[in-house]
Amino acid sequence: MLGTSYNYTMETPDTFVLVGIPGLQSSHLWLAISLSAMYTIALLGNTLIMTVIWMDSSLQEPMYCFLCVLAAVDIVMASSVVPKMVSIFCSRDSSISFNGCFTQMYFVHSATAVESGLLLAMAFDRYVAICKPLHYKRILTLRVMLLMSVIVTIRAVIAMTPLSWMMSHLPFCGSNVVLHSYCEHIAVAKLACADPLPSNLYSLIGSSIIVGSDVAFIAVSYVLILRAVFGLSSKSAQVKALSTCGSHVVVMALFYLPGMVSICVSWQGQDIVSLHTQVLLADLYLVIPPTLNPIIYGMRTKQIRERIWSLLMRCFFGHSNLSS
Q1: Cβ distance 22 to 2 under 8 Å?
Q2: pTM for the complete prediction?
């Protein structure tokens, strides 16, 4: 559709050209404005969450520490793609260096893998808090929490490094135009002169193992949580126990459901789902969770909401209406 209007190169390109959202060029300015607003909210919201948890000793518990790490990962995830997207949509600066493209790809995949692992760690935290409340502080110590975070990060690095290596060593001797808003793996792989099947299979199998195992363990955690909750004799105790999981469930839904929809749509092909719909869904998958996660936790978690309000009052009016 767009290939005939672009030049082709006969050797590995120094740069790739990111088209943005093919077919929606007329809406690029509005998309740039929307993405800029969402990115600003993501930066401010996640930074505020991190600041409040870091400054308030009463919030330095495993659940909030995991949330602090999640906020940092969300900033990395959004920052790896949104500034370049806005540049493409607003100023038409669509070129990205060869190394920059694969660096962006690496950070996107690694951030999503880390976030999936953190959601599993947070599910385990809720399981211990509800099913084994008397042993909570003994099981989830600061050392255990840090170890879980490190393992999740190492897992993402080990899993994603071979993919980036395989992709960067593919020969690119044809078009350097990526029909996407960022260096998405499949979109870049289609430009290779060699068969990208090994890297595609590695990506599919690797992501299926990581996300599949995380979702399976999360499901087991919540089955045990629900069994424990409905075993409580008091209705109010049941509601209170379930409410502590509400924010986590909403955040999981925001992360996994759009991702699954985006993957399913991309596998359907352009004959069934238009290319601009596929690209737009992939873009929103990386932007919506970092934007909404701090809002969800800020609105639904009383302790964080109160501390944020106290911090804002101190910043703008020089006093706090809440005790620490």
Answers
A1: yes
A2: 0.87
